[in-house]
């Protein structure tokens, strides 16, 4: 079976399952997303291992779990401080030549994917007391569909019209034509959810800036993953997903798009909109 067929069949099976768990929400969604974050941490750590700058995997996972549980546990700041002090103690006293590289990589692998996953969980839990119980689901699916739409249209636009490279030293196939096509894809993704799924928590006018938020930070997340893989000579983060590479390859855009969307919505809330 060709890679394209594997990619399509896996998407046909995995996408409905992912949407179903997102609709159920609660700890089912939190558990699924936490599991994905831990796998991405493993994939990132494996890339760093290839560069001989190994993160401390024990602290990496502990930091990741702490990040994802921060809103749900008592004294999260105190726990985080304890993890920070413990990591510094272990890595500096260890005395290895690459202890500082390991320290930095441990913190990076510990927070990157978990922060993205945490904000997606918070978006799913957005407005839990709203009159419309579908608000959190609608908002989460809007972000996911905007990312998916951006990815698909960016690929189609870049393949058919791409001439001007976006970041040739990081990802030689990405073009500005694909980037602007991705904005249209985000608009389509947002419109599909807004007009089909009931309970969207705010008006379409307030939602429109999300198109640009996702279209900027989604590709940046993609480029960040590409830069890391290129740095260590890897085509994919792993081979866990047939035709898709690894979880990091599939969720790289969402890991930055979700925090950016959450930031935008929090700014609106603080300003009283």
Write a structural description.
The protein has 273 residues and is mainly α. Helices cover 75% and strands 3% of the residues. The chain has one domain (3-270). The chain is built from ten helices and two strands. It has a two-stranded antiparallel ribbon. Helix 2 (26-50) packs antiparallel against helix 3 (57-69). The relative contact order is 0.13. The model has no long low-confidence stretch (mean pLDDT 88).
Layout of helices and strands:
Blueprint: H1 3-24, H2 26-50, H3 57-69, H4 76-94, H5 99-124, H6 135-161, E1 165-167, E2 171-175, H7 176-196, H8 204-207, H9 209-231, H10 247-270
Antiparallel strand pairs: 1-2
Helix pairs in contact: 1-2, 2-3, 2-5, 3-4, 3-5, 4-5, 5-6, 5-10, 6-7, 6-9, 7-9, 9-10
Let me know the number of strands: 2
Q: How would you write the strand order of the largest sheet?
A: 1-2
Strand and helix order: HHHHHHEEHHHH
Uncertain stretches of 5 or more adjacent residues: none
Q: Percent helix among the residues? A: over 70%
Outline? globular
Our count of domains comes out at 1
Structural class of the helices, strands and pairings? Answer: mainly alpha
Quick one: biggest sheet? 2 strands, antiparallel
End-to-end CA span: 51 Å
Mean of pLDDT: 88
Q: Strand fraction band?
A: under 5%
With helices defined by DSSP (H or I, 4 residues minimum), what is the helix count? 10
């Amino acid at each position: 079976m060709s890679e394209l067929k594997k990619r399509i069949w896996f998407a046909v099976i995995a996408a409905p399952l992912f949407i179903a768990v997102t609709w159920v929400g609660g700890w089912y969604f939190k558990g699924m997303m936490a599991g994905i974050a831990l796998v991405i941490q493993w994939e990132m750590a494996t890339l760093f291992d290839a560069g001989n700058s190994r993160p401390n995997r024990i602290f990496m996972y502990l930091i990741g779990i702490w990040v994802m549980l921060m809103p749900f546990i008592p004294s999260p700041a105190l726990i985080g401080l304890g993890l920070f002090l413990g990591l510094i103690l272990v890595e500096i006293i260890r005395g290895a030549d690459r202890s500082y590289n390991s320290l930095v990589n441990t913190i990076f692998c510990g927070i990157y994917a978990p922060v993205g996953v945490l904000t997606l969980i918070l978006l799913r839990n957005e407005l839990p007391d709203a009159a419309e119980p579908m608000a959190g689901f609608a908002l989460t699916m809007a972000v996911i569909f905007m990312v998916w739409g951006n990815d698909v249209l960016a690929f189609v636009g870049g393949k058919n019209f791409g001439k001007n490279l976006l970041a040739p030293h990081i990802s030689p196939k990405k073009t500005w034509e694909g980037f602007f096509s991705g904005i249209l894809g985000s608009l389509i993704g947002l419109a599909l959810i807004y007009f089909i799924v009931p309970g969207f928590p705010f008006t379409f006018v307030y939602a429109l800036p999300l198109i640009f938020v996702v279209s900027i930070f989604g590709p940046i997340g993609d480029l960040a993953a590409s830069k890391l893989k290129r740095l260590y000579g890897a085509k994919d983060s792993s081979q866990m997903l047939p035709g898709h590479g690894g979880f990091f390859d599939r969720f790289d855009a969402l890991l930055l798009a979700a925090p950016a969307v959450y930031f935008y919505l929090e700014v609106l809330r603080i300003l009283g909109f």
